[in-house]
Design goal:
mainly alpha
């Protein structure tokens, strides 16, 4: 890809290459960041159940919450990696940056967990496991 500011790299629009970059980043996050992996596995399992029973509103709500949570986790991981790359020494400013990034991820994880819990409860009620 061409760097717009430095003028380096290849020019032109290559959508297939961009999809490859997206998949590469997602594969890296799933492989090396456990917090992304287990949340994605839980979401896929619950989404599969909603998809199988054609609960489309529940499916879309949980898919949106999962996408938002995944975005926040990926940004958090990227910011932490960037901070670690810039300086290996402990710094109060870097700690504040990482804490703010983690707080943003935490807010989205809290919302995802609430939606996942409510939807799972409703699903169990559907099968008459809960009254």
């Amino acid at each position: 890809m061409r760097n717009k500011f430095l003028g380096t790299g290849e020019s032109g629009f290559h959508p297939i290459r961009k999809v490859g970059v997206v998949l590469s980043g997602l594969r890296y996050a799933i492989r090396y960041d456990f917090s992304v992996t287990y949340k994605l596995i839980i979401s896929v399992a619950v989404l599969s159940v909603f998809f199988f029973f054609r609960q489309w509103v529940d499916f879309l709500l949980l898919a949106a919450a999962t996408a938002m949570m995944l975005q926040a986790e990926l940004f958090n991981s990227a910011i932490e990696a960037l901070c670690d790359f810039i300086t290996a020494q402990e710094s109060r400013k870097v700690k504040v940056i990482k804490d703010i990034s983690a707080a943003a991820a935490g807010v989205s994880i809290l919302l995802w967990g609430i939606i996942l819990g409510i939807e799972t409860y409703e699903l169990l009620r559907l099968f008459s496991i809960f009254p």
